[in-house]
Amino acid sequence: MAQVNDIGIDLGTSQVLIYKKGRGIVLREPAVVAVDRDNNKILAVGSDAYRLIGRTPGNIQAVRPLRNGTILDFSLTQAMLHGFTRLAIGRHILARPRAVISVPTGVSETEKRAIISIMFDAGVRKTQLLDRPIAAALGIGLHFQEAYGNMIVDMGAGATDIAVLSMGDVVVASCVPLGGDAFDDAIIRYLRKKHNLLVGERTAENIKIDLGSAVQPAEPIEMEVTGRNLVSGLPKSQMISSLEIYEALHDTVGDLIEALEAVIERTPPQLTSDIFEEGIVLSGGAAQLSGLADAIYQVLDIPCGVADDPQTSIVMGCGQALEDTAAMREYLSDGRHHWSR
Ligand SMILES: Nc1ncnc2c1ncn2[C@@H]1O[C@H](COP(=O)(O)OP(=O)(O)O)[C@@H](O)[C@H]1O
Ligand SMILES: [Mg+2]
Predict the structure, then answer these.
(1) pLDDT of residue 339
(2) Domains of the chain and any CATH numbers
């Protein structure tokens, strides 16, 4: 039963998901590490890291080791990935499992090789890499093996991968450092400028999820937001409307649509017409911004839809590559060569 422990990993900038062969998704944890800044010791990873914050004395900080689609701190990424892998496969492994991992597009070749060695130390016999757009397409069930153009856009927290796939390969691709975090930052800037209200990243994220919209809301809703008055430094509450958050996000949404347009411009014409017909598929957590698919349709005149359960597309694609190794062989790489693009 050597294959029972095989795992598929989506190493995202905000979440890590692990799929176990024959079982489905077994781990879903925030990509966070708790570090004691007094001695740089790593205390916990994932949701345990969040639980530590504020409960333990000392200078403990929650750090996201990945940002903007790349690795910001390698040793923290190593600790986190090691911890999650051990959680998923257990300590007492009879046969060393195999892993398929999808890493952010901005990760360098050297870092990819380092990730494979981290996995080896965590007990994995063989690790193979799966390109993010291919993983997302597999997870969603796009038929990208045919001579037909498919456009897939995966929006994570730190970055968005845009790709045109055809005949089982990536034809055009681009990765822009623009995702859910950029929406949160836009909300922070807007509230600061318009209301002298300073809010943290997590508040901004909640506002985005509850009030955010990429298209002008027909019936605006309001919510009370608490932050700090920039002038007095005192706590301040303010009613904020979804119309204001639409305004706050407008330019960032525009930048994203421009990035999609740039990829379409680089796509061979015969594939472009397929995309105009079949549409664009969005996946990733940040694609859940209300009205995003409509906003894209309004500007580009291309039908656009969000995948079901968009935050799991990539890990499900890694899982599929595990379940059907023979058919998926051509998509997997061992990190020793650059196989696509
Ligand atoms: N309902 C929602 N509406 C808008 N954004 C959302 C929603 N749910 C999650 N997000 C955003 O999705 C992003 C995380 O997506 P995810 O695919 O998990 O990221 P990554 O692949 O980078 O780990 C975050 O920026 C988060 O705020
Ligand atoms: Mg993701």
Answers:
(1) 45
(2) 7-31+68-130+313-333 (3.30.420.40), 141-307 (3.30.420.40)
